[in-house]
Specification:
With 381 residues, the chain is mainly beta. The protein is built from three helices and 26 strands.
Length: 381
């Protein structure tokens, strides 16, 4: 057999092995509980602050998790001269609710360290996303680029057993048989009832589309399923509704129409329906959402068709098809150019809501609010 033909056959076998639903785990989604009923406060809380002391020049794409003592640990890429540069690192900082303050940021992943441990050239690092097991172990996935731009990226994983004080050496995930390139992360993982993890990823080389990786707790890829095809979707955020049902909000990557897209599953993520174009504006920016105990969704998105000039909190009872605006969190001033975006919305064990987002690509901003504030603002509209 000709070597070129053999290579194509092996590539096809690899693709089938990664995407064949018969290899998928039958376990369903874990629906994360709405914790806001734990907060007995009737006093509305709405506070904002910046994360860390301010890494110079560049900060972008934050994620966050609650650690064992109730503090919050954030992660983001920054510190460099610009996105995609070799001086960018992954930073972390801690928020203590008792003092209402963030610690100074420290780097945990730098290009030189990644290069040494992964035994390959690394040009830059990018988005990071975080997951905590019931045992307390933290898993953090981050993007690295060896060739070209983001289309030449790979996903790497590190773990911590001491609330993020120290971290393991990185391991590169095998997510594609095509030179294991062009896989990226942004949004929170989802959990399955058998303990496996669903990692939303996206692909940018020779097409732009979304996928869901099914991983073992130690990061082995069990199964990969397409959410979409083609060249128009990125950065899926998956929000389960039941063990079998979930909605994924997708960033629009092409130019028209400039609106958000959703896809849905009714079989635990083994297959996904046709994309639905919403009336929700999308200027090419990811969306974040949480499900309340009413079944409604809290959604944070850029409520403009171009640029990321306005960041909005809304609530929807029909998976984003229609929505009511709760608050315009940020809106462009005359001097702003880089806008606001890349939201990460979560709840702490106290029931308070926490939102991180990129502020002008200079800082990461942290917003805290509670159920009393949410209900007050909802009823006033």
């Amino acid at each position: 057999m000709h070597w070129g033909v053999l290579a194509l056959v092996l590539l096809n076998v690899g693709l089938l092995a990664l995407t064949n639903p018969t290899r998928a785990i039958s376990a369903g989604f874990v629906v994360e509980p709405d914790l806001s009923p734990r907060d007995p406060s009737t006093t509305p809380i709405y506070e904002s602050r910046f994360v860390g002391a301010g890494v110079p020049a560049f900060s972008h794409s934050a994620s966050m998790v609650e650690i064992s003592d109730g503090r919050l640990r954030a992660f983001w890429m920054g510190g460099g001269s610009h996105e995609g540069k070799s001086d960018v690192a992954i930073y972390t900082a801690l928020f203590d609710p008792a003092t209402n303050a963030w610690t100074r940021e420290t780097p945990i992943i730098q290009v030189d360290d990644s290069q040494r441990h992964l035994h390959r050239n690394i040009h830059t690092v990018g988005n990071a996303t975080i997951h905590k097991f019931d045992s307390g172990r933290l898993l953090l996935w981050y993007v690295s680029v060896s060739v070209g731009g983001w289309a030449g990226s790979s996903i790497n994983m590190i773990h911590s057993d001491d609330d993020g004080e120290t971290w393991s050496a990185p391991k590169r995930l095998v997510t594609s048989p095509f030179f294991n390139l062009s896989s990226l992360v942004k949004s929170p993982p989802v959990r399955f009832t058998d303990g496996t993890i669903g990692l939303p990823i996206y692909h940018e080389f020779m097409g732009k589309f979304c996928e869901l990786l099914r991983l073992t707790p130690d990061g082995k890829v069990l199964h990969k399923q397409r959410l979409t095809k083609g060249r128009r979707t990125l950065q899926p955020a998956i929000i389960p509704r039941s063990e079998t049902e979930a909605t994924a909000f997708l960033r629009r990557s092409d130019k028209a129409p400039r609106r958000a897209i959703t896809v849905a599953t009714s079989d635990g993520g083994l297959s996904w329906g046709e994309p639905l174009i919403l009336d929700m504006p999308n200027p090419g920016s990811p969306i974040s959402a949480l499900r309340l105990d009413t079944g409604e969704l809290l959604i944070v998105f850029n409520n403009v068709p171009r640029k990321r000039d306005k960041l909005t909190l809304a609530i929807s009872s029909d998976e984003g098809v229609t929505y009511d605006i709760i608050k315009e969190i940020e809106s462009k001033g005359d001097h702003l150019s880089n806008g606001f975006g890349y939201p990460w919305l979560m709840q702490s064990s106290t029931g308070q809501f926490h939102l991180l987002y990129t502020w002008r690509r200079e800082r990461i901003k942290h917003l805290t609010f509670n159920r009393a504030w949410l209900e007050q603002n909802r009823s006033s509209r």
